[in-house]
């Protein structure tokens, strides 16, 4: 089980991940984040789970999470930026993931635009950005799924040629809480101070 205390001990964010909602199992962390939006919960609210039953990817693809081994999470944002710039969020998330994973594991993963995280020519993660407006209020949900400590046997046989994890690649296991904290730290820094430099 992911430790909220260990996660927050690794954060140096102002708001991202400071409010956490954890469930052992859920249908979709993105759907849970939209409930938070409807309830007017604070920007930076983080939802993560050990098992996502109906996770979705881009173009309605299905995302499978491995309980106790993957990172499956979403967070809520209320950006104040032109609507036309919303495409930047997939890039902000991707850059944060690549840098965060490298900082902790020294493993270089890559981005396949617009939403895949690639390792050794195989998919190890994905990003799903969703947006909604309510009057003048804009909401963004950033959903991320990453294969961290899966073994080869955890990957469905029909996906083993296409999917991988950090552990499969390196033969090591990693602290998921630390990886998540560093990704959130990096994302908030880019979001608050540097997004305009990336456009």
Write a structural description.
This protein has 199 residues and is α+β, with helices and mostly antiparallel strands. The protein has one domain (4-198): Bira Bifunctional Protein, Domain 2 (BirA Bifunctional Protein, domain 2). Helices cover 31% and strands 27% of the residues. It contains 5 helices and 7 strands. The chain has helices at residues 4-9, 29-38, 88-105, 166-170, 176-198, and strands spanning 20-26, 46-52, 70-77, 110-112, 116-119, 122-134, 137-147. It has a 7-stranded mixed β-sheet, with helices on both faces. Helix 3 packs across helix 5. The longest helix has 23 residues, at 176-198. The protein is globular. It starts with a helix and ends with a helix. Pfam families: BPL_LplA_LipB. It comes from marine metagenome. GO terms for molecular function: biotin--[biotin carboxyl-carrier protein] ligase activity. Keywords: Ligase.
